[in-house]
Design a protein that fits this description.
This protein is α+β, with helices and mostly antiparallel strands. The chain has helices at about 25-35, 100-110, 130-135, 150-155, 195-210, 230-265, 345-350, 355-360, 385-390; strands at about 5-10, 15-20, 40-50, 60-65, 70, 80-90, 165-170, 185-195, 225-230, 280, 285-290, 295-300, 300-305, 310-315, 320-325, 335, 365, 395-405. Helices cover about 25% and strands about 25% of the residues. The strands form four sheets. Strands 6, 7, 8, 10, 14, 15, 17 and 18 form an eight-stranded mixed sheet that branches.
Length: about 400
């Protein structure tokens, strides 16, 4: 018999509901959730089906607090998230050999530790305004990062490494439609990235400050140190956090424009048009009204899924992704998963699999196939279809995408 979610976490103090079988969650992740639930400021914890161990707080957790924020419940890649856009290209427009398209993307968007040689000229990219004010605010950030101004400028419009990616995807056809009624599948662009080095530098500094505050001296885990509302430390963190969230969103907007330009260049004889983009954070803080209270909600590896909210839930580099629409579940604190979630650590994946395994598991995807990205092999992640099925009360599927190009750092 299938489990009906959510289910309560055994041994938790504050209300903690799971959209996953408790026994399927790794032991240390369950203990992390229990420790979070004991914090006196916690109103409730909601756990998504992609849950796994993180630093201090689990990835795939939503924590609502009264007048407090735990930086570890946001994560070090502040504002990390997804963006996607549907093109008017269809699958039949794509060439059999997609290496040229991948190369065109990689020529425009630096990946891994690479940056642009000079800050980008944003004017021809048409990526919105407010840039002057945005960069002026850099001087008000934590004094320990102010020397990173030039680096932050050059990293704008870059991907990074790890599980970050840029993909060209094909929308899977509606299997319920008759063959004659199925249009040629649409081509999408999808990407996943965050606030690059500047977000991590800010997060590390503020987590260190929080750990030294007196009210955090008796916590079960010092990584769960919090800032309290009405204090200068909280004000400074919220200021820097909001800037980093904005940087991450702008970074994705710039990258999306660069990838669109690469697609237009590749299909210059056709003239490609694009729909409005979809964008969502999955490492962030927001003030939200929950259970009749105004609470500070942190989503670490979770997206907002309020009624009608469009979201993006990726799988791995060989298993496809989903575009979803939120159903507005109050039980989940209006949240859903941010992806498939890891089922094994990066180090274990590197010990378990080889580059040959990666080649086999990414058949049909134009991508890196070398040992440097074996830790991103699909088998290191949970099954994305099962993750989507576990949250059918949280989101409805708008589109199922299958990647044919995957760019990684």
């Amino acid at each position: 018999m299938n489990t009906v979610f959510p289910v309560p976490l055994s041994g938790a103090s504050a209300s903690t509901l799971l959209w996953a079988d408790e026994e399927s969650i790794e032991h240390e992740a369950r203990n992390q959730l229990r420790r979070v639930s004991t914090l006196p400021w916690v109103h409730g914890v909601r756990v998504m089906p992609d849950v796994h161990v993180g630093k201090g707080a689990t990835v795939g957790s939503v924590i609502a607090m009264r007048d407090a924020v735990c930086p570890a419940a946001v994560g070090v890649d502040i504002g990390c998230g997804m963006a996607a856009i549907r093109t008017d290209l269809v699958a039949g427009d794509l060439p059999d050999d997609l290496s040229g398209l991948r190369s065109a993307i990689e020529a425009r968007v630096p990946v891994g530790f690479h940056s642009h040689d000079q800050p980008l000229n944003l004017r021809p990219l048409r990526v919105g305004g407010g840039w002057g004010n945005f960069w002026e605010r850099f001087g008000d950030l934590h004094r320990g990062v102010r020397q990173l101004d030039s680096r932050a400028h050059k990293q704008l419009g870059t991907l990074g490494g790890g599980n970050h990616f840029i993909e060209i995807c094909i929308e899977e056809p509606d299997v319920t439609a008759s063959d004659g009624d199925r249009p040629d599948p649409a081509v999408w662009i999808m990407l996943h990235s965050g606030s690059r080095n500047i977000g991590k530098e800010l997060a590390d500094r503020h987590m260190s400050i929080a750990a030294g505050l007196p009210h955090n001296s008796d916590l079960p885990d010092r990584d769960l140190a919090v800032f309290l509302a009405g204090t200068p430390e909280m004000d400074a963190y919220r200021h820097d956090l909001e800037w980093a969230q904005d940087y991450a969103a702008r970074n994705r907007r710039v990258m999306l424009a660069l990838v669109c330009a690469a697609v237009q260049e590749t299909f210059a004889d056709r003239g490609v048009r694009f729909d409005d983009p979809i964008s969502c954070h999955h490492n962030y803080v927001a003030t939200e009204h929950i259970d009749g209270l105004d609470l500070l909600v942190t989503r670490k590896g979770a997206i907002r899924a309020g009624a009608g909210d469009l979201g993006l839930i990726p799988g791995s580099m060989g298993t496809g992704s989903y575009v979803v629409r939120g159903l507005g579940s109050e039980q989940s604190f209006y949240s859903a998963s941010h992806g498939a979630g890891r089922r094994m650590s990066r180090s274990k994946a590197r010990k378990t699999f080889t580059a040959d395994d990666l080649v086999a598991q990414t058949t049909g995807v134009e991508s890196r196939k070398d040992a440097g990205v074996v830790d991103e092999i699909p088998a290191a992640y949970k099954d994305i279809d099962s993750v989507i099925a576990a949250q059918s009360d949280l989101v409805e599927v708008v589109a199922h995408l299958r990647q044919v190009v995957c760019v990684k750092g």
